[in-house]
Amino acid sequence: MASGRDVRDMLGLPMGGDGQKSAVQKRAKAAAPVRRIQGVAREVAALYGERPPPVAVYEEKKAYRAKRQNQGPAKKWVQQPFVNEARGDGLVLKHWRRKPTTAPPVQDGEDTLMKDGESAEPHVEKSTDFLKYSIQVDLPTFTDEEYDAYLRSDDWSREETDYLFEVVKDYSYRWAVIWDRYDYQPGSRSHLTQETDNADAGRAMAALPFAPTKQRTVEDLKARFYHISAKLMKLRIPEMQMDAEQYTLYETLSKFNPELEGNRKLLAAALMNRSMDEVKEEEFLLAELQRINMAANRLDAEREELRARLEHPSANQQVSAGLASFTSSQALQALFSQLFAQDRSKKRASGGGTGPSRISLNTNDLIQTPSSANAQLSAAARRQSMATNQSAQTPMRTLSPQQEHRYNVSTHDRLTSGVTFGSDKLLKMRQAKSNVQTQKIAAALAELGVSEVIPLPTSKVADVFEQLIGKVGKLLDVRKVREKEEGESRVLAQMKERRGSSGALGGESGGTSVEPQGKHEIPDSAEQTPGLDGEGDEDNDNDEDGDGDGDGDAEGEEDDEDAEGEEDSRVPSETVSRAASTAHKRSASVLSQGSVQSSKRARK
Amino acid sequence: MNTLNSSSAPAAGEYAGDEVAAIVLDPGYSSIRAGFAGEDVPKSVCPSFYGHIDSDSGSQYLYGENAIHTPASNLQIKNYWGSDGIVEDWDTAAKVWEYAITSRLTGARAGDPAKNGLNDGTKENGNGDAMEVDMETIENQEKPLEESPLLMTEPGWNPTKAREKAIEIAMEEWGTPAFYLQKTGVLAAFASGKASGIIIDVGASHTSVTPVLDGMVLKKGVQKSPLAGNFVSNQIRLGFKQSQPEIPLTPHYLVKSKTPVDAGMPAQAVYKTFDIPPTDSFRHYQEERVLTEYKESVVEIWPGPGRLSNGTNEEIAKNTPGRPFEMPDGWNQVFGVDRFRAAEGLFDANAALTDDANPRPKDEHTLPRLVQAAVQQVDADQRPLLLQNIVVTGGSTLLYKLGDRLNYEINALYPSTRNKLIAPGPVVERKYAAWIGGSILASLGSFHQLWISRKEYEEHGANIVEKRCR
User: Fold this and answer.
1) Between residues B371 and A112, which one has the greater pLDDT?
2) Beta pairing class for A125-127 and A77-84
3) Closest of B209, B218, B373, B385 to residue A218, by C-alpha
C-alpha cells in the first residue's frame, strides 16, 4: 500500500506541493472534455472562450442520427381491417398497423382466439378511439298532446315546428347555419326539398298548406324554439324545483326578445357597413374624446387635491368596526393619510407651529380617530383639551427660598440632557482653551490656596468657583497686557537710550508717555479683544514652551509642570513688584513678539 | 400536458389521424387533382380537357397530359364542364376522373387470369359454366376503387342532381366502399387551418366566394362569377387583337424553329405544316397554354390604392418598368401598362376590354362585389369573424399582386372590421388548397363516422348524399 506520498516521505522529498498540483492537473484534464463542443473544429471551439456560445451548438450526430433501436429484421405491417364503433352500419375500413407478433403456441385464451380469427377470416379490430367525437345534441321533445295543449301558435304550423326542430338538431344549434339552410316549404314542395326525406314530405303533404312560404329571420326561429323549450322545461320541472342553473337557463329562454335582438343586429350591421370617411371621423372623435377625458380627469384630480387641502379629513366610514376595520393595508394607508392631513391642517391653524411637528403615529391617535366623537371635534377644541391634560399632569407647588435651598431645588431655563457630576463642572471650569492658559489658571488657583479637588461640589460651590475663575481669568488677562506694555516701554526706552546719545531729553517723556497709555489700554484690551489677546498669549506661550515641548508629550508635561512651578513663583512677584527678574530670560522672544503684535495692531 | 406549438409534430392521438388509404378527388375546370388522403400534395394532376377523335372507325378518347398535347388530325379538345360550373358531360367526366385515379394512384388492376390474355391458349379447354358463375365477382373486382373510400369535392352551387350523379358513379362504376362529398370552400378553409371564414376561390372558369361557418357552407352566401382565369385569358386575347399592330399568338406546336428578332419585329420562324390540321379547339387549347405562361410571367394587377383608372394611377403604372415576353415563334415585346389592363376587369367591370363576343362583365361579378354580396347573406353576428379569415385560393389568385389589391378592396368595403387575408405562399398550397383540405379531412379518424358506406347507399339510394353531406 505504499503510495507516492509514502515514497516521498521516505526519500524526504517535498510532500504537499507536487501531489496537489498533479491532482489539479488531473482534474482539469477530466473536466476539459466535458466542456468541449462536439462537431466543431478545435480552432473554432477555442474562439468561444470560457463562456458557452450564444447560439446553442447542436451535436449533429446526436440530434439527427438516433441510434437504431433494434437490429433485427424490419417489423411487419398489415392492413388491418377495423370497424369504427361510432358508425352504426359496420363499415369495414382498413388501416396500417404493426403485425402482431406471433405468440408461442400455447399461452392463454386470447392468443388462441386470435389465431382462430386469423385462420378463419381476418381479425376485424374494433376502433373506439373516435367514439367520443360522435356527439348527439340534446333537444327538447314533446308529444302531440303537449303540443296541442301548450305549444300552438298562430304563426307556426305543427309541421314547420317539427321541421324547425329537425333542422336545429341537424345543425347542432348553429343558428347562423340553421337560418341559412332553413327552407321550409309547406305542402307540395315534397320532392324539391333537400332537407326532408320522403316520409316527412308525405306528412307535410297531408297537412293543409295554409300559410305561404315565409321568410323567417334568425330571431323568428330562435323565438319559436326558445319559447317551446321554455314551456317544455316548465312543464317537466316546475319553476319552484329548478336549481339555479336550470332557472337561469329558463330565464334566458323565456326572456328572449326577438325585436330587441333584431334591432341589435341591425345596429351591428350598420356599424359594419360604415364608409371609410365615417370610420375615420369616428376614430378622430374617439381620439378627441379620449383627450378631453384625460384633461377632465386631470382637472378633477387637481380640484380633489385642492379640496382635500381645504377641508378637514372626512370621518372614517368604517368607524363602527373599530380597530378591526384597519386590518387591510388599504385601510391603514387611508388612515395614515387622514392623520397626516389632519396634522398638517393643525400645524397650519396654529400658525407656524409652536410645538414640535408630529408625523409619526402614536397610540393616542389610533384610539382617538376611530371614535366618532373625536373625529368630529374641531382641531382647536382638541388642542385645548390636550392643554388641560398637560396642566393636570404637572401640578405646580411653590417653595420658599429656604426650602428650595434645603431640598436643593433649582429651576432652570434649559436642562441639558443626561446626568453630570458637580465635580465635572468644576473641572471643566479649570480648563481654558489652551494648555498654557489652563496651567496659568491652575497656578493662580494654587496660589490662592484652592485645592485641586473640591470635596463638596454643590451648585453653590460651583457658582462661587465660577465667579472665582472669572476673576482669575480677568487677572491673567490684565497681567498679560501689562507684560506686553512693559515690553514695549522697555523697547521704547532702549530706543530712547540709543537716541539719548544725541539727546537724553525725550527718553523720560517717552517712558512716561508710554506708561499711562498702557494703563489706559489695559481695560480696553481686556474688554474689547480678549480673543486677540488670547491668541497673542498663545503665541507667546507656545514660543516659550517651544524649547521644552519638542520631544514628546510626557516630557512636555513634565516641562510644563516645571514651567508652572516657575511661573507660580513668578506671577505674584511680577504682579506685586514690577521688577522683571525672570523676564530677562525671555526678553528676546517677548521683544520680538511685542514688536510683531504692535506692528499687527498698527496695521489694523 | 404539453401545449401545441408549430415546431413539434402532434402525437398520433392528438390530431386524431387514422388513415384508411382514402382517395381524394378534386375535379376542377382546368385540372383534376387526385391523391391519397394524408399526403400533402396530390399525386395525380391531370388536365380536365380531353381529346376526342371522331373518325370513321369510331370515337377515340384521349386523356392525360401526354395525349392531348400531341397534334393529331381531327383531334378535338373538349372539357366536360358546363358553362355554369357544373359537370355537363357525366360519361366523359367519369372516364377522365377514373383516368386521373388509376393512372397514378391505384394502377391498372390485375385482371382476372381468364380475361387478361395471358391464358388465352388454355381458354378453350376450360369449363364455360364455371366462368359464367364467376363473372359477377370478376366484374366487381375490376372496379378501380374497390379498396379505397373516396372523398370528392364539389363547387358550392352544385345541384342535387349532380351530387347524386357523383355518388352513383363512385358506388356503381368504381365500387368504392365509402364515399363522401364535400364542398371546395370548406376544404380550402381546412387547408388553411380554419373552420370558419370566407373563401375566395379564383379558378379557371369561375370565381366563387363561399362563406363557411364551423365547417359548413352558408348556402345563401355562396357567390360565383365567370370572371376568372379564362376571363383573363380572353382579355389578353382581346388586348393582343386590339393592339396596333396586332400581336400574333402562335402556339408551340406550329413552330418548327425560330430565330431571334428585335422587340416588336415580326417573327422569323419556320412553321410546321399538317396534312390535316388539328381542329380549332386544339389550337385554342394550345394557345391557352401560351397565355397561361403570359399570365404567369407578365400580367400584373394594379395593387391599389384605387382602381387602375383612378386619377394618376395609370400614369404611375406606365412609369413602372415593363416586362418582356417572347412568343413561341420568337416575336417578343416589353409589355408596359397593358399588362395591368388584362386582369383589371376582375375588380372593375368598366376597365374590361370588350368586343362583340366579349360583352362588358356585370358589375356584381367583380371580386369586391362578390365578397360584399357573400358577407351580406351572413348573419350580422358572424360577419366580423368571417372577415377575419378570408382564405384566398385557386390558381388564378397567383396573378401578381392580386392579394394586395384584394386586401385594399376589402378594407375599403369594410373599414371598421379587422379583415385578414390568408393567402398561402407556396404555389401548390394555393392551387390545390381544396385537395389538401380534403386530404386532411379524409385522414382523420373522427371522419370515419361521416363516410357514406356502400350499405347505406344501397339502403337509401343516391339521395342519401343530400342528407349526409351538407
Assistant:
1) B371
2) parallel
3) B218
Assessment of whether the complete model's pTM goes beyond 0.80: no
* A440-448 long-range contacts, CB within 8 A, separation 24+: A440/A476, A440/A567, A440/A571, A441/A469, A441/A472, A441/A473, A441/A476, A442/A564, A443/A564, A443/A567, A443/A568, A443/A571, A444/A472, A444/A475, A444/A476, A444/A571, A445/A472, A446/A568, A447/A568, A447/A571, A447/A572, A448/A472
Q: What is the mean pLDDT of residues A223-232?
A: 90
Query: What count of residues does chain A have?
Result: 604
Copy the grid coordinates of residue A200. Answer: 316527412
Q: When comparing pLDDT for A382 and A307, which is higher?
A: A307
Closest-CA residue to A226 (of A176, A164, A184):
A164
- Residues 6+ positions from A68 with CB-CB distance below 8 Å: none
Residue tagged 399582386 (cell numbers)? B401
Instruction: Using an 8 Å CB-CB cutoff, list chain A residues near B455.
Output: 89-91
- Which residue among B147, B220, B384 sits closest to A180, beta carbon to beta carbon? B220
Q: How is B204-255 classified by DSSP, letter by letter?
A: SS-EEEEEEETTEE-GGG-EEES-SHHHHHHHHHHHHHHSSSPPP---GGGE
Taking CB atoms and an 8 Å limit, are B416 and A271 in contact across chains?
yes
Provide the 8-state DSSP code for B170.
Answer: I
User: In the predicted model, is pLDDT for residue A190 greater than 90?
Assistant: no
Going from the C-alpha of A598 to that of each of A484, A519, A520, A604, the distances in angstroms are 9, 16, 16, 10
Q: Tell me what the pLDDT averaged over chain B comes to.
A: 87
- Interface with chain B: mutation pick from A85, A95, A168, A179, highest number of B CBs within 10 Å: A95
**Beta-ladder partners of B217:** B212
Q: Closest Cα partner for B301 from B203, B409, B201?
A: B409
DSSP H or E stretch at residue A463: helix A459-500
Q: How far is Cα B389 from Cα B422, in angstroms, rounded to an integer?
A: 7
pLDDT of B423 above 60: yes
Nearest Cα to Cα of residue B406 among B315, B393, B193 = B393
Taking the CA of residue B21 and the nearest CA in chain A, the distance in Å comes to: 7
* Contact (CB<8Å) B448/A174: no
Arithmetic mean of pLDDT, B351-358: 87
- Exposed / middle / buried, residue A190 (Cβ in 10 Å: 0-12, 13-18, 19+): middle
- What is the CB-side half-sphere exposure of residue A76 using CA atoms within 13 A? 7
Residue with grid cell 512651578, as numbered in its chain: A565
Q: For B319, list phi and psi in degrees, rounded to 5.
A: -80, -10
Q: Are strands B49-55 and B44-47 parallel, antiparallel or unpaired?
A: unpaired
Given a contact cutoff of 8 angstroms between Cβ atoms, the answer to whether B151 and B22 are in contact is: yes
Q: Mean per-residue pLDDT for B90-117?
A: 78
Q: How does pLDDT run across A73-129, given as a tens digit for each residue?
A: 888 888 888 888 888 888 888 888 888 776 544 444 444 444 443 444 567 888 777
Cell 365500387 -> residue: B175
- Nearest Cα of chain A lies from the Cα of B377 at a distance, in angstroms, of 8
**Average pLDDT value for chain A:** 69
* Whole-angstrom distance, CA of residue B18 vs CA of residue A97: 10
Question: Across A333-481, where does the E strand assignment appear?
Answer: none
Q: How far apart are the C-alpha atoms of B466 and A340, rounded to whole Å? A: 80
- Interface contact flag, A86 B448, Cβ < 8 Å: yes
Taking one residue from A and the other from B, the number of pairs with CB-CB distance under 8 angstroms is 110
For residue B33, which of B87, B138, B104 has the smallest C-alpha distance?
A: B104
